[in-house]
Amino acid sequence: xxxxxxxxxxADLVRIGKGATLDDDRIDIGHEALLRxxxxxxxxxxxxxxxxxxxxxxxxxxxxxxxxxxxxEALLRGVLLxxxxxxxxxxxxxxxxxxxxxxxxxxxxxxxxxxxxxxxAKARSQARWRAxxxxxxxVLTGRADNREHPFGEGTD
Length: 156
Known about the structure:
Blueprint: H1 2-10, E1 14-17, E2 26-29, H2 32-37, H3 39-67, H4 78-85, H5 92-148
Antiparallel strand pairs: 1-2
Helix pairs in contact: 3-5
């Protein structure tokens, strides 16, 4: 990758803008022909822009979470949390934010599982009571029928 980049720089097709660290360096397109004639490069650039937008959203959300007192309502859930978990270069604040989000998700999942267990137990209990009621009703109905026919059913 570095060799290709060096060749592109030597041909003045791209320029490298130095950042504070190597990760902060920028690569700028030096010639419009690259974009017109290299469709895969355009796709890579779009993918990188999308990745940067997602990362900036994570950073700003983590900052807002910290500024608002680290409340649970600002934590990540679902797909956004899955995306955040994929990063391995998080800042300290972002790591704390993602960890809190993950913990809240696990707590919510546990609470949901417990609620489902209670609802299932309640449904089973209600089913047992209905079955017992039906059995008792059947027995009582059978006795009532026998009283109405003192000689038993089917006798003329």
